[in-house]
Amino acid sequence: MMKSSYDCVVIGAGPGGCSAAAIVAQSGLSTLLIEREPFPRFHVGESLMPETYWPLQRLGLIDRMKEAGFQVKKSVQFVSHHGNESAPFFFRQHDMRECSDTWQVERSEFDKMLFDRAEELGADCHDQTRLLDVRFDDMQKIVGVRIRDRDGNERDIDCSVVIDATGQQSFIANKLKLKEVNPDLRKVAIWSYYRDAVRDEGDNGGATIILNTESKESWFWFIPLSRGITSIGCVGDTDYMIKGRAKPEQVFYEELERCPGLKPRLENATRLGDIRVAKEFSYMTTQHAGDGWVLVGDALGFIDPVYSSGVYFALEMGVRAGDAVVEGFKKNDLSAAQLGGWTESFLEGVQWLRKLVAAFYTKEFSIGRFMKEYPEHRGRVTDLLIGRIFDESAEQLFKDMDTSIEKAKMESAM
What we know:
Elements: E1 5-11, H1 15-26, E2 31-34, H2 53-58, H3 62-67, E3 71-73, E4 75-79, E5 89-90, H4 91-94, E6 102-104, H5 107-120, E7 124-126, E8 130-136, E9 142-148, E10 154-164, H6 171-175, E11 179-195, E12 208-212, E13 218-224, E14 229-237, H7 238-242, H8 248-257, H9 263-266, E15 270-285, E16 289-290, E17 293-295, E18 301-302, H10 310-331, H11 336-339, H12 343-360, H13 367-373, H14 378-386, H15 395-413
Parallel strand pairs: 1-2, 1-10, 2-7, 4-12, 10-17
Antiparallel strand pairs: 3-6, 4-5, 8-9, 9-10, 11-14, 11-15, 12-13, 13-14, 15-18, 16-17
Helix pairs in contact: 1-5, 1-10
């Protein structure tokens, strides 16, 4: 039975919301977690970075992940617009610990596991429950939310803290006009699922593969899932992918014809289900927390799908936000500074992945060429693909990467 008042209300039961709710509820604070969709529910974003190990360990889920039957992911590989394959970036060649292996997950199963774990740790969890509004007092401090429950009843819920994990809907940021879209990363993703796509043998069989098309105007992801199914998606600029072109299904196949690295892998594969489409606009929020509220996951910001950082970032933000809420109640301090105090250091680390995304979308950049020119950076690039963005500076890596890109630009202009 849903109560009329909670210490904390978490909106959105993706990885960020579930991890935040679990941490807060485990501390003994009354916690409501709501999700508008029924569980289990479909979601894209199946590839995990290895650093997801640590928030999953914090939630007590490592053993369940091992038992769930998800495809193990041990590497990332890149394929050029000519179809040339880079040497795979094997995580365990850089770090032999168990945490260097990760998973490719069916999000319906993975998110349900997180939702159930939040409930086990004490959160009051309700799906098919929609947020209608967030309520502020005259001082712009959170006092509660208004929701519509699964039976269609509208009701006010009082609370001291709201954790907004509403994904790209980013409810509070949109309400307060805090979102800034990156005009250089306005992308569209068109994807579907295939049975019997060709995978590599051995440890690279579960690799996420990033494949450029001939013009480098788009790229494909290749994410092997369990049960012989592979997620195949195409990403490109909105103007290129949509304006003046045919239906998304035809665009998908046109781009596939332009992807020499992917075509052979799908020759004998069978597509399953419909073609799906999503706009993937990169954005950041100008304010990440306020008195009684904090943003996590895509509600705080979205970079790009290319390096599969979304789930890890959401889980990590959820844990950090949950810890900040728990500490705030102990200190009787639910200010913006307390609830969002973790965001600055988090975003300092995220900047390195943003730089790697920017390099990827520079047409002259080639990861294979860069590794030949600067083999000493292979370990640091692997660190970034693992998700280790908070440990040390990557300044020299990106100085050398800029040099490589400028050299390539000069050569192409000759």
